[in-house]
Amino acid sequence: MIEFFFPQPQDLLPLRSGPLAPHLDRFATLLAQQGYCQPEGRRRLRLVADLSQWLAERRIKLEEFDEHQTTAFFGTRWKTYSKKGGELCTLKLLLWHLHQTGVIPIPRPPLVRSSL
């Protein structure tokens, strides 16, 4: 389904690096199922590819990827690029997708201690 967003195979090569690269096709399928048009889907897939490269540069394993890394990624990204609508939602959707497919563990809720 990624071919819908990137019909030219050579356009996919820059996206295929980092720990998220093996999961890009399934995420593209999810975006297509949700009705994203070509330009918007491309933008969101490039964001995931940028995140994947960022994770690789910092040697963060996919098993360690969580909301904290997305926050740090955006802190770095927004120093260079302007904020664009939907970026945060895209990475939340990516995290949900990776949790649902068993790629990364579902976070445990914080332990609440009470005197009872």
Provide the fold topology.
Elements (H helix, E strand, L loop, with lengths): L1 H4 L18 H10 L4 H20 L9 H14 L6 H14 L16
Helix pairs in contact: 2-3
Describe this structure in words.
- With 116 residues, this protein is mainly alpha-helical.
- It has one domain.
- Helices cover 53% and strands 0% of the residues.
- It has helices at 2-5, 24-33, 38-57, 67-80, 87-100.
- The protein is globular, with a radius of gyration of 15 Å.
- The termini are far apart.
Radius of gyration equals 15 Å
> What average pLDDT do the residues reach?
88
Record field, number of beta strands: 0
Could you give the order of the helices and strands?
Answer: HHHHH
Count of separate structural domains: 1
Tally of separate helices: 5
Shape: globular
Structural class: mainly alpha
Please give the share of residues in helix.
40-55%
Largest sheet, in brief, is:
none
**Poorly predicted parts:** none
Beta-strand content bin: under 5%
Q: What distance lies between the first and last C-alpha atoms, to the nearest angstrom?
A: 52 Å
Could you give a short description of this structure?
The chain is mainly α and 116 residues long. It has one domain (2-100). It is built from 5 helices and no strands.
What descriptive keywords fit this protein?
single chain; 116 residues; mainly alpha; 5 helices; globular
